[in-house]
Specification:
This protein is mostly helical. It has helices spanning 3-27, 34-41, 45-48, 55-78, 83-95, 98-114, 119-146, 153-172, 174-180, 183-196.
């Protein structure tokens, strides 16, 4: 394949991924088909199969791209050597589009439970995720030590994940958006809560 054709191939593949993500967010995975994706890109259905073997593989490639982008974000945040900036980078990424985070989480769990043929893609997805978690561990361990905390780094990271899940659901709630919505205030409170997690309560005088 010539360089020019290779560039065109990658551009078309990205267009397919972009179209799939748009349709997933608009309609959900049960509603979209390969034909709908092809129509949005303006290509034949068969052309998509030159890039992806199935809709499930296409979805997993979207999840891999999403986690890869987060891994780059976390790597940049780690350069600050500041746990607050690292946590804020993680929260900001996950919660900048809460509906996308929730959808991708649901799709991952659904595919993991039903598709053994996708194991190589899950191995890649989990490798990327574990890579940025390993980057976070030293910062979390140091932070907990400074707090004289008995909490383990793994429990701290799990608590952070739980906070993100709950906050994404709140931000995605039409009731919250209509009646309570103070996004920046909520994110600031979330950051403060996680930074204080594991700290020892001060003894009463």
């Amino acid at each position: 394949m010539s360089q020019q054709r290779a560039i065109a191939f990658r551009a078309r593949e990205q267009a397919i991924l972009n179209a799939a993500e748009y349709l997933l967010l608009e309609l959900g995975d049960e509603s979209i088909t390969i034909e709908m994706i092809a129509e949005r890109v303006g290509i034949a259905k068969g052309t998509i199969y030159k890039h992806f073997q199935s809709k499930d593989e296409l979805i997993l490639q979207l999840l891999i791209a999403y986690e890869s982008e987060l891994a780059v974000t976390m790597l940049e945040a780690a350069k600050s050597d500041d746990i607050a900036q690292i946590i804020q980078a993680y929260f900001s990424f996950r919660l900048s589009a809460p509906e996308k985070h929730l959808l991708f989480e649901r799709l991952e769990n659904k595919l993991a439970a039903t598709r053994r043929t996708l194991r190589p893609y899950f191995a890649r997805l989990y490798f990327i995720r574990k890579s940025y978690l390993r980057q976070m561990l030293p910062f979390v361990t140091r932070h907990l030590a400074e707090q004289n905390s008995v909490m383990t780094a793994r429990d701290y990271l799990s608590a952070g994940w739980a906070l993100v899940q709950g906050t994404a659901a709140i931000l995605h709630s039409s009731f919250y958006q209509r009646y309570l919505g103070d996004r920046e205030g909520l994110l600031a409170a979330l950051l403060e809560a996680l930074l204080g997690l594991g700290s020892q309560p001060q003894a009463k005088s």
